[in-house]
Amino acid sequence: MENLELSAYLRSLVIGTETQVPITGGQFVPAINFDNAATTPPFVSVMKGITNFAPWYSSIHRGKGYKSRMTSNIYEEGRHIIGDFVKADPSKDVIIYTKNTTESINMLAYIMSEEHKGKVILSTEMEHLANDLPWRDKFLVDYVSVDEKGYLSLDDLEFKLKKYRGKVHLVAVTGASNVTGYINPYYEIAKMTHKYGAKILLDGAQLVPHVLVDMKPFASDEHIDYLVFSAHKMYAPFGVGVLVGPKETFEKTQPVYKGGGDVRLVSKDFIEWDLPPFKNEAGTPNIMGVMALIDAIKTLNRTDLNKIHEYENGLIHYAMDKLKKIPGVSLYGYSSDNQPKVALVSFTIEDIPHNMIAEILSRHSGIAIRDGLFCAHTYVQRLLNLTGQELNYYRTHPDVTLPGMIRISFGLYNNYEEINRFIEVIYKIAGNKRQYVQKYKKYVID
Ligand code: PMP
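Above: inputs. Below: predicted complex with 4'-deoxy-4'-aminopyridoxal-5'-phosphate.
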């Protein structure tokens, strides 16, 4: 397929590409969404799937009605589809449906803390808060450092694995950063982690929507022990997340949520928990969300994620090449050494605050981007070289705008025309800062 044809085809897969939004002056323009790392619009197939399924929707597991049996089958079949998608081991892994990546990691942290309290978790300086905060109050947490380019230091990983001499239970690392887009060498990390007797959790929130992830067999030293991701970042925005991990982790431990659906038999004196994953899905689950995720995976499989990744990579390199030529722009996530990455990059423009740029892009041009610290505070602080003193200042001055960056993140439906429109506006902003700030400062509280 030619690139233009592919681009048009990919664009036809999602809903909302033609939506018009109002801008300053009252006109309407086609919305440009460069905030796909936050969440993606739904696939057409997902919406169709939900509508087609709706007449059959019913309770799962306990109902004996035809619709219940059918719904239960599809819900359970979903685990196989997801497992196949990430090459989990059907005989050893469980696929647990959660709300999102954040809930998946929190659940895992609670469950692990039951058996491994006091052990060490190695998070990293480039993690989203979802892969940092859940560990803090339950384990001794240390952070693998990143270098000045923003790359994870494998030397520091090895140093820390050695330093804690067998006490590290888990290395909790992101597959791809939501700030720079850098893809971590997760198989190398897995190898090193296993060499020191620890397990690896891969935060797939930014990876799974863009790259074919293979958890590899249990016997491989590159095996990914735990994988988490969110459906709403992969064109199925109905509130489902996934936690994949070895059955035995969940067999011996208490479930985090307790109630109906997770037990076999209960008396006033005892509780017989059901087996995982049922044990870990108390209450009526998000069935429509699961249907949406199944349809999204089928669409991604049909389309070929390798092709999608290649197309999205073309977009981000095109955008970075243009951005880096604009005076005053500093990029975070651009590298000249072919570092693998997903289609997002962050930047700042000298002398103009990030929140102001975000307001201008939205109000002047109908372009949605993300600004701030992107829930990856330590990483952004490191990339911006903020000192402890500066952080303290921001901490003790709640009225002051926090430091931050601008981030653009692409989905498979974005195209070169949209990037050109965006670059044109950034050029104008960077060249006429005073006028823009004057015009839009009323929207920015400082
Ligand atoms: N990890 C990463 C790398 C993310 O980018 C995000 C979402 N921005 C999360 C975790 C959390 O995902 P969710 O909000 O779906 O729980």
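The radius of gyration is 23 Å.
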